[in-house]
């Protein structure tokens, strides 16, 4: 049986109190900016980060790993859904684009 | 206007206090998310893409001016200055912080509003014709019955864990404006030999497997309403499939069991339940009816000066005949071209409340088409009202036209979405407006959903648009010929989907094809589709195929 090769990922969640979209960086901090997130290149590391996030359930909610690719400024979305989560809705500048 | 009694208030206050404690326990770590999630959903709190979302019920779409002002206050104090009115007569706030939600719920409780049973496998907000009480074609005002059903279903001990969510809609008019045929139970008031009763439909629904409701009883006496509904829900509770979420709605139960067998079981259950219901419900109904008494109408002129073409156009589209010749029903469009369908800013909500007080005896309604209604306006006040609405961007004359689009939140907010709906709606509206053909096209219902769940009612749009994810790219499927009225029909898929930047041109080709093939301006898009079938519309959607075939 063939297994799909591991693709790079970022760990994301929403802040429990506020609901804001956040990403896990390499220093265990939750950051708002996707570019500062840790791009996870190895499967074992991904499992570790997910376990770490799940243990932080009093800070974040709905943690999951999602595919990202390396870009000039840091991780970039592969799928448009993560693109919207990273920038905000397209009808109002009410998401992260407000602070950008 | 119905006022919640002390029991309702105490119940809501207690639930709010409970929820505040639950939020605190979640925040201090004594509740896990697994434990907390069902509790927050029971109180209308979802987690969406960017933030939490709070869904507040507006029972049967009727809302008072103090309530509308509180909705505005919530938008300003705890959200980003606006709210989104939905197809199920709810309002959704897209940006509340979890820590603030208990305060929001308390504030709502002050004016008898809440978010209970706006989620979960319970009986949801009971919806009704938004012209109720004012419509010229109605047999009776459906809202007292909707309120009776609300009281019966709220916190009903047996119906908190149904196989799946359960939605009821009621209309008092033969022209169905409440989409009763797409609800789990649809109730249509009918008159027979001077008596009022209900035609009862079951098993309608949209979503993954759209179905039109089927008549289970063609005339149900009013006094039997609660035991009969209880019989329906009990049979569903027993037969409904709990093994598969996608087969759990009553529409599937009806489909798999057959309407005749369903009827047999419902009637059997009803025969057992009927004696257990004494006449307290009917006494309650009389009290409720008194609360829905119509305002003391003031007399006014029936003929008004419509020489101003802008006012004339507004009256043509946004004004519907009222029971009384000297009054009118005014629909305020929340669909200004290029704006998000169904959104209203805090300022707009306040202006609507003020105008309702000044011109509409303080009454407001929310329609499933995501607009706001002033049900009783003197015709003599129409010009002044229209001018005041125009001043805050609420004067758009497009109700029932191509840009009066229903759109769900889609990928811009919803965690379940597979594609965006809002920008597609915005661009279609802008394009139709630029082309200057909207009034020529006439009645046309375009409805857009951002995934198969069909919250945007696309199956019953004359033109339905469903946003999908095809290999990581947004793709839009068109359905044609859907209808949510008493002539309900599920739209038929036109063919392969369109990319995000192709969907607006595709809709443009469709409406131009319609203008080409219609018999005259009196034949609507839907009529033309029914007369001609899909061929000329498909040819317009897929011109290359026509060329290939030639
Ligand atoms: C967080 C946002 C939302 C979520 C998670 C959500 C979820 C769902 C799901 C899962 C279904 C399919 C149910 C089934 O077929 O069993 C559904 C149906 C539906 N929802 Fe939503 N929805 C959301 C927002 C909305 C909004 C904004 C509206 C109104 C514009 C809406 C109105 C409806 C309606 C009318 C249906 C289809 C009718 C039916 O129940 O068969 N929902 N929703
Ligand atoms: S149809 Fe899908 S995308 Fe739209 S609101 Fe419903 S669940 Fe979300």
Report on this model:
The complex is a heterodimer of chains A (100) and B (550). Chain A is α+β, with helices and mostly antiparallel strands and 100 residues long. Helices cover 20% and strands 29% of the residues of chain A. Chain A contains two helices and five strands; from the N terminus they run βββαββα. Chain A has helices spanning 43-54, 80-87, and strands spanning 9-15, 21-24, 30-31, 60-71, 74-77. Chain A has a five-stranded antiparallel sheet. In chain A, strand 1 (9-15) and strand 2 (21-24) form a beta hairpin. Chain B is of the alpha+beta class. Chain B folds into four domains: 6-110, Sulfite Reductase Hemoprotein, domain 2 (Alpha-Beta Complex), CATH 3.90.480.20; 134-289, Sulfite Reductase Hemoprotein, domain 1; 309-390, Alpha-Beta Plaits (2-Layer Sandwich); 406-549, Sulfite Reductase Hemoprotein, domain 1 (2-Layer Sandwich). In chain B, a hairpin with a 4-residue loop joins strand 4 (82-85) and strand 5 (90-93). The relative contact order of chain B is 0.09. In chain B, helix 3 (65-78) runs antiparallel to helix 11 and helix 5 packs across helix 9 (280-291). In chain B, strands 16, 17, 18, 19, 20 and 21 form a six-stranded mixed sheet that branches. Chain B is globular. Chain A binds chain B through residues 14, 16-21, 57-58, 61-62, 78-81, 84-85, 88-92, 94-95, and chain B through 26-29, 32-33, 47, 49-52, 80, 94-99, 340, 411-413, 417, 420, 422-423, 426, 469, 472-474. The site of protoporphyrin IX containing FE has 22 residues of chain B, from loops.
SSE blueprint and pairings:
The complex is a heterodimer of chains A (100) and B (550).
Chain A: E1 9-15, E2 21-24, E3 30-31, H1 43-54, E4 60-71, E5 74-77, H2 80-87
Antiparallel strand pairs in A: 1-2, 1-4, 2-3, 4-5
Chain B: H1 6-27, H2 33-42, E1 45-47, E2 52-57, E3 62-64, H3 65-78, E4 82-85, E5 90-93, H4 101-110, E6 127-128, H5 143-153, E7 168-171, E8 185-192, E9 195-202, E10 214-221, H6 225-239, H7 250-257, H8 259-273, H9 280-291, H10 309-318, E11 319-321, E12 327-332, E13 343-345, H11 346-359, E14 363-366, E15 372-378, H12 382-390, E16 406-407, H13 422-435, H14 438-441, E17 446-449, E18 463-470, E19 473-480, E20 492-493, E21 498-499, H15 500-517, H16 525-532, H17 535-541, H18 543-549
Parallel strand pairs in B: 6-7, 7-8, 16-17, 17-18
Antiparallel strand pairs in B: 1-2, 2-5, 3-14, 4-5, 4-13, 8-9, 9-10, 11-12, 12-15, 14-15, 18-19, 19-20, 19-21
Helix pairs in contact in B: 1-2, 1-4, 3-4, 3-11, 5-9, 6-8, 7-8, 13-15, 15-17
């Amino acid at each position: 049986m063939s297994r799909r090769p591991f693709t790079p990922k970022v760990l994301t969640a929403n802040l429990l109190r506020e609901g804001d979209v956040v990403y896990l960086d390499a220093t265990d901090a939750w950051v708002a900016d996707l570019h500062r997130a840790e791009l996870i290149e190895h499967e074992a590391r991904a499992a570790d980060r997910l376990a770490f996030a799940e243990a932080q359930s009093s800070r974040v909610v709905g943690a999951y790993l999602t595919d990202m690719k390396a870009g000039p400024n840091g991780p970039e979305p592969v799928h448009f859904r993560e693109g919207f989560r990273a920038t905000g809705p397209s009808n109002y500048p009410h998401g992260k684009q407000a602070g950008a | 206007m119905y006022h919640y009694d002390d029991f309702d208030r105490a119940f809501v206050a207690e639930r709010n206090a409970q929820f505040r404690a639950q939020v605190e326990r979640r925040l201090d770590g004594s509740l896990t998310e697994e434990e907390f999630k069902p509790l927050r959903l029971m109180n209308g709190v979802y987690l969406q893409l960017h933030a939490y979302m709070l869904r507040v019920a507006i029972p049967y779409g009727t809302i008072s001016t103090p309530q509308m002002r509180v909705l505005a206050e919530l938008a300003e104090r705890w959200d980003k200055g606006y709210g989104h009115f939905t197809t199920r007569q709810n309002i959704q706030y897209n940006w509340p912080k979890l820590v603030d939600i208990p305060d929001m719920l308390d504030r709502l409780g002050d004016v008898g509003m809440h978010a209970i049973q706006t989620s979960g496998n319970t009986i949801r907000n009971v919806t009704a014709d938004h012209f109720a009480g004012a419509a010229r074609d109605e047999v009776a005002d459906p809202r007292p019955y909707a309120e009776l059903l609300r009281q019966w279903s709220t916190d009903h001990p047996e119906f908190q864990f149904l196989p799946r969510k359960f939605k009821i809609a009621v209309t008092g008019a033969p022209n169905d404006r409440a989409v009763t045929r797409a609800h789990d139970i649809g109730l249509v008031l009918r008159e027979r030999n001077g008596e009022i009763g209900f035609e009862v439909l079951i098993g309608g629904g949209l979503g993954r497997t759209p179905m039109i409701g089927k008549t289970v009883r063609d005339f149900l006496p009013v006094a039997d309403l609660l035991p009969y509904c209880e019989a329906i829900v009990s049979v569903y509770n027993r037969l409904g499939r709990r093994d598969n979420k996608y087969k759990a709605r009553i529409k599937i139960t009806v489909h798999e069991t057959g309407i005749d067998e369903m009827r047999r079981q419902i009637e059997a259950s009803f025969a057992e339940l009927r004696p257990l219901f004494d006449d307290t419900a009917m006494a309650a109904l009389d009290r409720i009816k008194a609360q829905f008494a119509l305002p003391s109408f003031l007399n006014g002129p029936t003929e008004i000066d419509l020489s101003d073409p802008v006012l004339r156009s507004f009256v043509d589209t946004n004004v519907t005949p009222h029971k009384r010749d000297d009054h009118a029903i005014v629909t305020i469009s929340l669909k200004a071209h290029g704006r998000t369908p169904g959104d209203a800013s805090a300022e707009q909500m306040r202006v609507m409340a003020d105008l309702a007080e000044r011109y509409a005896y303080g009454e407001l309604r929310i329609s499933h088409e995501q607009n706001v209604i002033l049900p009783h306006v003197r015709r003599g006040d129409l010009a002044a009202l229209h001018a005041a609405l125009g001043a805050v961007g609420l004067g758009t004359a497009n109700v029932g036209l191509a840009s009066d689009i229903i759109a769900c939140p889609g990928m811009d907010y919803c965690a379940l979405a597979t594609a965006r709906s809002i920008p597609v709606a915005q661009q279609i509206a802008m394009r139709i407006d630029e082309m200057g053909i909207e009034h020529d096209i006439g009645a046309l219902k375009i409805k857009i959903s951002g995934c198969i769940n069909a919250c945007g009612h696309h199956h019953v749009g004359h033109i339905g648009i469903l946003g999908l994810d095809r290999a990581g790219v947004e793709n839009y499927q068109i359905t044609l010929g859907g209808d949510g009225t008493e002539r309900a029909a599920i739209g038929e898929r036109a063919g392969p989907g369109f990319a995000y930047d192709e969907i607006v041109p595709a809709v443009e080709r469709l409406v131009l094809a319609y203008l080409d093939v219609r018999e005259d301006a009196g034949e609507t898009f839907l009529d033309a589709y029914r007369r001609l079938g899909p061929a000329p519309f498909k040819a317009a959607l897929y011109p290359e195929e026509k060329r290939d075939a030639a």
